[in-house]
Write a structure and sequence with these properties.
Layout (H helix, E strand, L loop, with lengths): L1 H9 L3 E5 L1 H6 L8 E3 L8 H8 L6 H12 L1 E2 L2 E2 L8 H10 L14 E4 H9 L8 E3 L3 H11 L2 E4 H18 L3 H32 L6 E2 L8 H24 L7 H22 L6 E7 L2 E7 L15 E3 L13 H6 L16 E6 L10 H15 L3 E6 L2 H11 L8 E3 L6 H9 L4 E6 L3 H4 L6 E6 L10 H9 L3 H21 L3 E6 L3 H4 L3 H7 L3 E6 L3
Parallel strand pairs: 1-5, 1-6, 2-5, 6-11, 12-17, 12-18, 13-15, 13-16, 14-15, 16-17
Antiparallel strand pairs: 3-4, 7-10, 8-9, 9-10
Protein name: ATP-dependent helicase C-terminal domain-containing protein
């Protein structure tokens, strides 16, 4: 990211585009860049004053109002000074953010989020005179694909009723009208409860080995499928009745009513796709246990690189563009040839990657036992200041619970007990030795807290779960989804991670024997230029 910040500082009219996490982690004005916040982070003054004047506050509303007041100066709300939890942000977005995007000017050296860029493109803000820097190009591409899918979970269906109850309490002053609307929502809630239950039965009926399944019209011909269709029809009818009832209401904030109607209409259209799957491009159903998730993609996902971004000047300064053996990967994703220029490291001795070749494959029955035993012995004998990257949070939790009691003399921290970035930075700086353990997906958030370390240890090459939307769409775009998308994407992400740690770690260890034993492993190794590869056994 430092390279891209330096590029943005050197260009006359840059627009740096980063993920939400990166955007929230930096003091951009101190770096000479002006942050451009998406509209969902901005405060609608009219809605704020309306909420302040409510005769009674929900405890959640009161806490949110206090945070907003504390983050305001001279009547201006500063989102950079207001940390909101996930639930608080949802409440803020529902009740206090503008009901429609506000057209913004991009002036000077600017930085924004993926959503901020999307809003600028949707509103037709002129960007041709700017240089767009998108270092997290692959993450942005996946974000765009995810945005094309409407995700419906049981929690979402519960919120369908709860958010509309909130609207009635806030906006409807006629008690008779409000009572009638609440009755309609009670009926809607009953249909949604039954829909969630039957959806779970359909999932159990159709799934194989917990794989994601594509919801097809034939699924609705079964007994449970017919029940699902009937309950969905009841949900749609209840939503139509509710929409028709609120459309002519006189409320204090007409724009809030208009948004409520718009959201209800949109939900109705998506639910109609479930009663007739031929109306959608793809519908995916998956779940774990009793939790079920639907992803409804009404239209084929847009390749934004070839539509909205095509006329613009793009700069992708990233360590993870090329992959040996899949040199056209970036071109495949972007839909156009990519000119690649390496970023030189300068005259430095190559750092070592140590490959442990004789650990069991992750599919072996004794994998977890053997990998935990090896890690435990390594921590006891060699580890000083080290980072251990687990492939997922479950394995991280299992190791900590199983082995930490036997490693009492070691300073072992995990991302769950690290606190915030500032606390972790202070903790690690004061320790002569430590083991910091993190799941792969959370590494980019915590890496800035690390001081210089002796080793960075990766249990295995992290492939995305096969049920991610981008992975499912890749199987439609590519002849071989693994070779043409999953593998090169995993290599790109590994290269980016190694680049983030390059100047912090003395050496890197990778405990994934597949990279040595499988044919595709050579693609991984050849792609890691600038490193000295050493194969060794655990003995």
């Amino acid at each position: 990211m430092a390279t891209n910040v330096a590029l943005a500082q050197s260009l006359p009219k840059p627009l740096l585009v980063v993920s939400r996490d990166v955007f929230m982690q930096h003091d951009w004005p101190a770096l000479g860049l002006t942050p451009l916040w998406p509209h969902s982070y901005k405060l609608d003054q009219q809605q704020f004053e309306f909420l302040l004047k409510k005769p009674n506050f929900d405890p959640r509303e009161l806490k949110l109002l206090i945070k907003i007041i504390l983050a305001s100066s001279d009547g201006e709300f500063d989102p950079a000074m207001c940390y909101l939890t996930k639930d608080e942000f949802y409440l803020f977005d529902q009740k206090l953010s503008p009901t429609a995007p506000i057209k913004s000017k991009v002036e000077g050296k600017t930085v924004t989020t993926f959503l901020g860029l999307w809003e600028l493109l949707e509103l037709g803000v002129p960007l041709k005179s700017l240089a767009l820097l998108i270092p997290q190009w692959l993450e942005f591409d996946e974000w765009c694909i995810d945005r094309s899918a409407k995700v419906i979970t049981s929690a979402y269906l519960n919120a369908v009723v709860a958010s509309r109850r909130d609207f009635i309490r806030d906006q409807v002053r006629d008690t008779k009208v409000a009572d009638q609307l609440f009755k309609q929502l009670n009926e809607l809630g009953s249909h949604l409860v039954m829909t969630t239950a039957v959806l779970g039965l359909v999932w159990q009926e159709q799934q194989r080995n917990d794989d994601t399944v594509e919801l097809e019209e034939k699924f609705l011909s079964t007994k449970n499928g017919n029940r699902l269709k009937g309950n969905l029809t009841g949900v749609i009818d209840s939503l139509l009745q509710y929409r028709d009832s609120i459309q002519k209401l006189k409320v204090a904030l007409p724009q809030v009513l208009a948004r409520q109607v718009e959201h209800t209409n949109s939900l109705i259209q998506y639910l109609k796709c479930l009663t007739d799957p031929t109306q959608a491009y793809k519908i995916y159903l998956d779940g774990r246990g009793e939790r079920v998730m639907l992803r409804i993609i009404k239209d084929p996902p847009e390749n934004i690189w070839q539509t909205k971004l095509k006329p613009l000047t793009l700069v992708i300064a990233s360590n993870g563009v090329t992959v040996d053996g899949a040199s056209g990967f970036a071109s495949t994703v972007l839909g156009a040839p990519v000119k690649v220029q390496a970023l030189p490291l300068g005259k430095v001795a190559p750092k070592e990657i140590i490959w442990i070749t004789d650990l069991p494959s992750k599919n072996s029955f004794n994998y977890q036992r053997e990998i935990f035993r090896y890690l435990k012995l390594w921590i006891e004998s060699e580890a000083q200041r080290a980072l251990v990257v687990m492939p997922n949070i479950r394995l991280l939790g299992d190791f900590f619970n199983e082995c930490q009691p036997h490693l009492g003399t070691k300073n072992i921290l995990t991302q769950d007990i690290a606190g915030n970035l500032e606390l972790l930075t202070e903790k690690l700086a004061g320790m002569d030795s430590f083991i910091f353990m993190v799941a792969q997906y959370g590494l980019s958030h915590w890496v800035s807290a690390l001081p210089d370390i002796d080793q960075a240890v990766f249990l295995r090459l992290a492939f995305d779960p096969p049920n991610k939307t981008a992975q499912l769409i890749a199987s439609l775009r590519c002849r071989n989804g693994f070779i043409e998308y999953s593998l090169p994407k995993a290599v790109v992400n590994l290269k980016i991670t190694l680049a983030q740690l390059y100047w912090r770690a003395k050496e890197f260890w990778i405990l994934d024997s597949r990279i040595v034993s499988e044919d595709y492993g050579q693609v991984v190794r050849r792609s890691l230029a600038g490193f000295k590869h050493i194969d060794t056994s655990r003995g």
